[in-house]
Amino acid sequence: MYKYVFTLLIIVSINAFSQHSKKYVKRHLGENQKEVSHEHFKDFKLITDMLDSAKKVTCLRYKMKSIERIESGYATASTIVKLQCHPRRSYFLNIQNKLEVLYNEGELSNKALIKPHVFPYFTVSLDPRGNIMRKNQHFTILDIGFEFTARTIAVALSKEKDQIAKHLTYVGKVEKNKMNCHLLIYENVDFSYRDYIVQHKETVSSIAGKLTVNDYMLRCKNKLYDDYSYLKEGSMIKIPTFYCKKAVFYVDEKTMLPISVSIYDEIGLFETYDFFNLEINKPIPAAEFKRDFKGYGF
């Protein structure tokens, strides 16, 4: 993505997952109390508290560092982000590439303003879900914020059903990004791939959304990095059996928000996102989402 985070194209309702998890915990404890320890109950409580906290975020300022595996290797970025969730407004600056992006829901036909500070220099408006903005990006400009990280974790766990307790481990309290955090690790040694036959008018993203798998991981496995059109009906592709093989996430003890998330596949690190200098739910002046705001280069 333009190096920061991001409404996964794999749409999973945070609220629905939270309610499902709580019901699951109660039901599972009721039926198999010997199998689920007090520590595992705490694991679930941390997850549902995190999802609830992410849902309550209305405004954010933060700095983000990301590592994403792309076709040519690993891409790293440091990004400064301003975000208002409803209506959705966002500004971010990729520090290394000096790339600015401004998005205001309902304006410019829902396109984003892009200003590269290298050739060709001029500002353009692009579709956030289009192939130009998505090239070598795991996610889109529409996906920045804690909703992404919470959904990533929710998706990873939602496919586990009654195996969550087996694969989720609470490590303890540690320091991460200068914050006191709860460290949780999800790992599934059964992660693999299965064959899938493409149906009528399906894209990589629609398949990923339908099967709750990582969109970019699906592209990597099948070498479909730049394919955003309909796939050939009847063709066969490989689909991950779970969202990831391993996930490591740190939940800030104070805000109960996931301030670091790393996702792994069978090869190794696939993507990692770290948040710093958080300002949460402090209203951002509307002027800061205008192209002529002082200091912007649009």
List the helices and strands and how they pair.
Blueprint: H1 14-31, H2 38-55, E1 59-70, E2 73-84, E3 89-94, E4 99-104, E5 112-116, E6 124-126, H3 131-134, H4 146-158, H5 164-167, E7 168-176, E8 179-187, E9 193-197, H6 204-211, H7 215-222, E10 236-240, E11 246-252, E12 258-264, E13 269-280
Antiparallel strand pairs: 1-2, 1-13, 2-3, 3-4, 4-5, 5-6, 7-8, 8-11, 9-10, 11-12, 12-13
Helix pairs in contact: 1-2, 2-4
How would you sum up this structure, described in words?
The chain has two domains: 14-161 and 269-289, outer membrane lipoprotein receptor (LolB), chain A (Clam); 193-240, Membrane-bound Lytic Murein Transglycosylase D, Chain A, CATH 3.10.350.10. Helix 1 (14-31) runs antiparallel to helix 2 (38-55) and helix 2 (38-55) runs antiparallel to helix 4. It has seven helices and 13 strands. 24% of the residues lie in helices and 33% in strands. Strands 6-5-4-3-2-1-13-12-11-8-7 form an eleven-stranded antiparallel sheet. It is an alpha+beta fold and 298 residues long.
Write the element-wise H/E pattern from the N-terminal end onward: HHEEEEEEHHHEEEHHEEEE
CATH-derived topology of the largest domain? outer membrane lipoprotein receptor (LolB), chain A
Classify the helix fraction into a percent range: 10-25%
Q: What structural class is derived from the secondary structure elements?
A: alpha+beta
CATH class of the largest domain: Mainly Beta
Question: Biggest sheet, open or closed, and with what strands and sense?
Answer: 11 strands, antiparallel
Contiguous runs where pLDDT drops below 50 for at least 5 residues: 1-38
CATH architecture of the largest domain: Clam
What's the number of structural domains? 2
Strand order of the largest sheet: 6-5-4-3-2-1-13-12-11-8-7
Number of helices: 7
Termini separation comes to 20 Å
Overall strand count: 13
| Gyration radius, in Å | 19 Å
Q: Averaged pLDDT, please?
A: 84
Please indicate the percent range of residues in DSSP E strands (runs of 2 or more).
Answer: 25-35%
Shape: globular
